[in-house]
Amino acid sequence: MTLEHLRNQYNTQLSQQQRRQGARDLLRQQKQELLDQQAALEADAVLRAQALALLQSFSERLRVECIQRIERLVTRGLQVVFNSPYEFVIKTGLQRNVVTMDFVLKTPREDGSYLSTPLYDYIGGGIYDVISFLLRVVVLVLHRPPLARILLLDEAFPHVSRQYRQNVSLLMRRLCEQLSLQILLVTHYREFGHHAEYVYELRKVHDATQLTRRTADDQAE
Question: How many domains does the chain have?
Fold first, then answer.
């Protein structure tokens, strides 16, 4: 067996191994995407249940007013973040004397009309992340009896692309000011803290954890 033959055999085996490794990596990625989608669906179900319980506790007149308030808040939030005339709509119905509810996103078309799409079609995307956050704000603010207006979020916007992160930060700041909220967000992305009152940054320095606090004035400089 010649050296050239051994070299070719080695390269062939290496190529096969790399293909198998690539296939395993792809399967792991697909598994993680399915797990993320499952988690998003479960979170969506919880939000729907909370919102439904909230609406069912109101009379018919107050229910209509509440739905309109939710639609306006979520619509404005989407427009702040994405600079696009999105419109959030809640469609309600009645089945066996129980109120049902579906979330719909209306997006503009070139001819001036709107395309209505169920929210679950956006699961796993930045739009869904923002709507999910805004609905959490709604449940917190409208809950009766009133709850402490403190919202704890852990990586709440994983699919929001970099170009919109500062807009999300601006949205959170406005909501805090207008609704007397306090939001604590844990994230790996600095852009989400751009409009924050305080930012606490943890770093690993020489095997030790370093904590740095920055204020809004510091970030403006």
Answer: 1
| Residue 214 CB neighbour total at 10 angstroms | 15
Q: Token pair of 164, please?
A: 């919109």
Identify the segments of the chain with pLDDT beneath 70: 1-3, 5-6, 10, 14, 33-35, 37-61, 97-99, 123-124, 216-221
CA distance to 50, 110, 113, 137, per residue, from 46 (Å) = 6, 35, 32, 14
CATH number of the domain that residue 25 is part of: 3.40.50.300
Q: Rounded to 10 degrees, what is the CA torsion of 128, 133, 135, 140?
A: 170
Q: How far is CA 104 from the centre of its chain?
A: 16
Cα separation, 48 vs 60, in Å, equals 18
User: DSSP state, 206?
Assistant: T
Closest CA to 176 of 191, 163, 164, 193: 193
DSSP 1: -
Chain-centroid distance, C-alpha 56: 26
pLDDT at 53: 66
Distance CA 172, CA 14 (A): 51
> Is the pTM of the predicted complex or chain greater than 0.85?
no
Q: Locate tokens 């805004």: which residue?
A: 134
Question: Which residue segment(s) compose the domain that 203 sits in?
Answer: 3-220
- The pLDDT score that the predictor gives to residue 112 is 82
Q: What is the pLDDT of residue 154?
A: 92
Question: By the 8 A CB rule, do 169 and 196 touch?
Answer: yes
> What is the C-alpha to C-alpha distance for residues 128 and 135, in angstroms, rounded to an integer?
10
